[in-house]
Amino acid sequence: MTRAKSTLEQWRILQAVVDHGGYAQAAEQLNKSQSSLNHAVAKLQHQLGIQLLEVKGRKAYLTEQGEVLLRRSRHLTQSVDELEQLATNLGQGWEPSLTIAKEIIYPTEKLVDALEAFIPLSRGTRVTVLDSVISGTHDLINQQMVNIAICATPPRGHLAQPLCECDFDLVCHPDHPLAQLDVIEDEKQLAQHLQVVIKDTGSNSMNDIGWLKAEQRITVSNFHEAKVILGRKMGFCWIPNFLVEDHLKHGKLHKLKLHGSYQRRITLNIIIPNRDRQGPASRLLESLISLQHGIEAMTAYTEKAKA
């Protein structure tokens, strides 16, 4: 068996030097001396027989060969980190904390139902719930910043288990000009009015929730703010039915009928960003969330059968 010429520690040091822009900055972040980092990278280059970095001024830059090897080394160190994390979970058992990313179109009551069942069994596990929108949820999943995620379209490379469906209604204030139309025959009629949309929480995305052809829009962070704006007889908005059901029932909002598309439906899924890192507390909470929707589906089926 051939013995490796380099160590994981050397590759981690190289990554730190590149990520932080130089030896001095990396030394500060790693709490090591600058000379020890210089020595580690120099030894790595000597062992490999390839120059990985070249220093220009006070900054270190990757060579072309260094860029290729650094990219491959990130996969290697990430795999080792995940392996060590798995071993930690197996050794320690129950997780002290869990973080859940939840699309804002997912009914909070359903998650609370699951948490109500989880808390007595949680062994003191702290739970953090993050509201997110579209690519914001994808960011949290891809960066493995959460233990459990509930979102619509899953990011590439992640398996998803369907939980429920969310119906959206197109609504406005009963006194809004659009409410005077029995049916909106053409989307161009909508485009002439103000639209309220929900902002994507992703760091680099321009995607928002809603049909986006209106020339004038107000973008807000959640549906509560959207309903406040609609209450002032301003604009229209696609909003989950469970959030406007009472408003429609009591005449505070009006449901618009758009020819060919008066209602929209989205499937929400549960996703575990990294199964290898999932501990027993996460598995329990995942099963309780899924169970809530299984009970709901069974109840709906029973009521339908009785009818």
TrEMBL record:
Cross-referenced InterPro entries: LysR_HTH_N, LysR_subst-bd, WH-like_DNA-bd_sf, WH_DNA-bd_sf
Classification via Pfam families: HTH_1 (PF00126), LysR_substrate (PF03466)
UniProt keyword terms in alphabetical order: DNA-binding, Transcription, Transcription regulation
Chain ranges of the HTH lysR-type domain: 7-63
Family: Belongs to the LysR transcriptional regulatory family.
Protein name (Swiss-Prot/TrEMBL): LysR family transcriptional regulator
Taxonomic lineage of the native organism: Bacteria, Pseudomonadati, Pseudomonadota, Gammaproteobacteria, Alteromonadales
